[in-house]
Design goal:
This protein is α/β, with parallel strands linked by helices. It has two domains: 115 residues, Enolase-like, domain 1; 224 residues, TIM Barrel. The chain has an eight-stranded parallel β-sheet. A three-stranded antiparallel β-sheet has the order 1-2-3. A three-stranded antiparallel β-sheet has the order 4-14-13, covered by helices on one side. α1 packs across α3 and α2 runs antiparallel to α3. The radius of gyration is 20 Å and the shape is globular.
Amino acid sequence: MKITDIKLFEVEAPLITPFKTALRTVNNIQNIGVHVVTDEGVIGIGEASPTAAITGETKSSIVHAITEYIKPAIVGLNINEDFADIMNRLERSIYKNTSAKAAVDMAIYDLYAKSFQAPLYKVLGSFRKELKTDITISVNDTAEMVNDSIAAVQRGFEILKIKVGKDPIGDVERVVEIRKAVGPSITLRVDANQGWTPKQAVKIIQKLEDVGANVELVEQPVRYDDLSGLQFVTAHTYTNILADESVFSPKDALKIIEMHAADFINIKLMKTGGIYQAQKIAHIAEANGIECMIGCMLETKISVSAAAHFAASQKNITLVDLDGPSLCLKDPVTGGPTFDNQWIRMSNEPGIGFSI
């Protein structure tokens, strides 16, 4: 099964409500889809999410990276016979551009699993058949966030990921009021999206600990490149700290682990450049006794399904943040795993699960 072409298409999906973090506000998902075409007529599918504030990519840069650099590097290679070579060429084709690489990577994995007529998660390891995801509560005024949290619980979600970081003074109030509203049985995760300084982070987290907010973890409290600051926060708080934007590569993960800069690592395909590199991070973390989260950017069912297959194959991925499809008003595609509010259930369809 040889690669003969790579075709791009628009992926659009309106959001149920605006997605707001300390870094950006988004009303509609506007991503780039990928079809990797083979000489046997079988097509693999992938998706890239342009997130300039995190990966430095835009829609136009993704298109340029794929058409001018990635496509020439891998067209003509055989999915089964040259799989490792394809992945090595993909990684070397252009510096960074991780979302562009991720879209092609997941399409290659889709084809690889289809060549065995098996779902991808089984080809990768088949550790579990369903995942339990959280859902994001966008940063707004306290009353609106409380209402959004109650609505999410009423939808059936038992894990809430609360966005903070735009207003350090009010962040404690937001979390405390949400805890009061949803009760003690709901799991709360807090994501500052790099919005605090190290000292602010320690003060806020210790306050949350003192008032009994019972937060499971705090994600990326400080700037992505401030590893010493992240280490400081981890060392001076009891709450688990999750490294997200600080970890793009296996090398980044190893650095975090060596410095004891975080308790958990968040793996996102848009950061790693796809499943091939994500597996390396998961294995490094597992070898060092560090559990991982599987996360996503603002992505639709296409790429989130690829991430779900990867997560279902990995024992060490114990935390799931794959709420992209749950934030969308409608899916741009049919098929793939079933997204039933907090539950993601794998199907037995070949590859990622989409018929093209």
